[in-house]
Amino acid sequence: MQIRLDKFLADAGIGTRSEVKRIIKRKSVTINGIYVVKPEIKVNPDTDEIAVDGSAVALRGSVTYLLHKPAGYVCAVKDSRFPTVMEFVPQNRDLFPVGRLDKDTEGLILITNDGMMAHRMLSPRSHVDKMYLAVLDRPAEKKYAAFFSEGVDIGDDMPTLPAGLKICDTDDPELAYLPKEYHTALCPGQAVLLTIQEGRYHQVKRMFHAVGREVVYLKRLSFGPLVLPLSLKKGESILCDPEKLSAGR
Ligand code: URA
Fold it and tell me: Which among 245, 234, 249 is positioned nearest to 101, based on CA atoms?
């Protein structure tokens, strides 16, 4: 994301737009160590280091990235054994992942520094829908949809909240999210869409285990109002629209 230097400095609270223009013109501002005098020059707040009179300037306010998580990364700020999703976002904004996907799960994960938003999206009381695309070891049976809609005993104190199951048809657009190796290799009923309202540990895998199926591939396609863009490659992230994040508040 590129913005004008004077807007960046004004947003960061350095002064009004005309004050920061004067500050820039008197040669007090550096971008990556180089003095600049043009207020209209474009900067990337994620990658450029901007300083006024030698002090680094950070944007105020919250920021949220939507990342297409690849398998093999854990959803933690730090981990001693595995690479984390933080590798894919800027390092200087106190960011953390909103909830967790398993190491082998792909798909939409939010990374933010907005604690209130994270709480709102994760609270079981908020009932935020999360839709997963799963490939099962054997085809799902039609009766699972009614079973899941009642809530499932997966060995916790309480059964799950009602969940929505759709067995995919061959022309369902969501199948476009599957890796190529599955495009021709699936039996009817092996690909399913499950929408859950909670985020319990291994929830999707445990729900299918409860009906005698194992999940062999899992991808999160949506989280509340946010949908994983089909064009977003694994490891790529985009900045989220704050209005979408406050929808349903
Ligand atoms: N349910 C799972 O089993 N795994 C995930 O990563 C997310 C939901």
Answer: 234
